[in-house]
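job 3f2a | input accepted
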Amino acid sequence: MDRIRRPRDVTEPQSSAAARTLTATRWSTLLGLWLVMLVSLPRYWLQHDTTRLALLAILMVAIVVALIGFWRLMASAQRERCPAAIKHLGGCLLIGCLLIGAWHWADVAADHWAVILSQGAALGLLLHVVVRIWRRRH
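job 3f2a | predicted structure (138 res):
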């Protein structure tokens, strides 16, 4: 009589693979996305754009849940690298805000501070990701 083959339990290898792919850079990038959303809230509040405010609030809650879950799955070696990645993220966010502020000042497009802050944070997040990838590959 033929034995029925049961599929192997694939949850264990996947969880260890997931732990390997959850790096400090990826976690800090997700944190940066949450921060970009956070600093975009005043922009849409001042514009009375309740639809975007509601969507941002929902997405921010989802990202916080993901951040907590990823933190728990992340290897301890990667957790130890998170403070440096967060520091790098903060520096990039500051540089992004300064660059966007300078751009708006030079372009004489005196937008509202909330627009400059949200655009600067988005540029800073982009800088964070590009620099981290660049360092890893070189």
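job 3f2a | Residues 8-14 have pLDDT under 50 and may be disordered.
job 3f2a | closed
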